[in-house]
Design brief:
Blueprint lengths: L1 E3 L4 H7 L28 E2 L8 E4 L3 E7 L2 E4 L8 E2 L4 E4 L10 E10 L11 E5 L21 E6 L14 E8 L1 H7 L9 E4 L16 E5 L5 E11 L8 E5 H14 L3
Antiparallel strand pairs: 1-14, 2-11, 3-4, 3-7, 4-5, 5-9, 6-8, 7-8, 8-9, 10-11, 10-13, 11-12, 12-15, 13-14, 14-15
Pfam families: Trypsin
InterPro entries: Peptidase_S1_PA, Peptidase_S1_PA_chymotrypsin, Peptidase_S1A, Trypsin_dom, TRYPSIN_HIS, TRYPSIN_SER
Keywords: Disulfide bond, Hydrolase, Protease, Serine protease, Signal
């Protein structure tokens, strides 16, 4: 069954308690009418400061710092466009229990217009106050970076159905062509809007709790640039089922326009 790479409300509530002695939560089974799934399977720990733009969201998703006040994430992680003060963003740390972590509440959510569960899987969360001292992650505005080898990172499960992670994990995954990916998924891919990455043999992938997090690579100037947003997949790291990501280049102008309307 195709599943989102996100979590249920029950687990998201538990994840908000990041000051607990340990983080060994296990994702509950999905309801029959509630598609869900992305953590980084086959990953290794990221170093403190390695990806300063990474964001953990209290509903059990990931995101990337687009600007000091905006977090880019997946549409399926949020509700409809409008005022929203219920989300807490955790930033500035690889350890969700670190005493130096930064936490900021949301004040508004912008979900991609026309989002209906198929494609258009992007959203912006505006923070109540700007975050200073952390690098943001630029998005690609061209398809030039939509191939090669990508990096993914997140606090999601390290195995399908596993618990969420206290420490940020990272992994690299190769580009998978639209034709191969669409064949693997029986035609469910939206090629213009989605990009796939993973190994035919499986073993490395995003997973439950990684939804909304970035897929990124080095640009021509050697800086990180975002090319994808963790969206969906069949389980986690299964052979011949690569991860499916929102293709940021396709939506770049829409994201930039929305960001401008939210104050940058």
């Amino acid at each position: 069954m195709v599943r989102w790479r996100t979590l249920t409300g029950l687990l998201a509530t538990a994840l908000a308690a990041v000051t607990a002695a340990s983080l060994t939560l296990t994702a509950p089974a999905a309801a029959a009418d509630s598609p869900m799934t992305p953590n980084v399977v086959g990953g290794t720990r990221a170093a403190q400061g390695e990806f300063p733009f990474m964001v953990r969201l209290s509903m059990g998703c990931g995101g990337a710092l687009y600007s000091p006040r905006l977090v880019l994430t997946a549409a399926h992680c949020v509700g409809s466009t409008g005022t929203n003060t219920s989300i807490t963003a955790t930033l500035g740390t690889v350890d969700l229990q670190s005493s130096s972590r930064i936490t900021v509440r949301s004040n508004y959510v912008y979900r991609a217009p026309g989002y209906n569960g198929a494609g258009r899987d992007w959203a912006l969360i505006r923070l109540a106050s700007p975050v200073t001292g952390l690098s943001t992650l630029p998005i690609t505005t061209t398809t030039a970076y939509d191939s090669g080898t990508f990096t993914v990172a997140g606090w999601g499960a390290a195995r399908e159905g596993g618990g969420q992670q206290r420490y940020l994990l990272k992994a690299t995954v190769p580009f998978v062509s639209d034709s191969v990916c669409n064949a693997n998924y029986g035609g469910d891919l939206i090629p213009a809007q989605e990009i796939c990455a993973g190994y035919a043999s499986g073993g490395t992938d995003t997973c439950q709790g990684d939804s909304g997090g970035p897929m990124f690579r080095r640009a021509a100037n050697n800086a990180w640039i975002q090319v994808g947003i963790v969206s969906w997949g069949n389980g986690c790291a299964r052979p011949n089922y690569p991860g499916v990501y929102t293709q940021v280049s396709y939506f770049a102008s829409s994201i930039a326009s929305a960001a401008a309307s939210l104050g940058g």
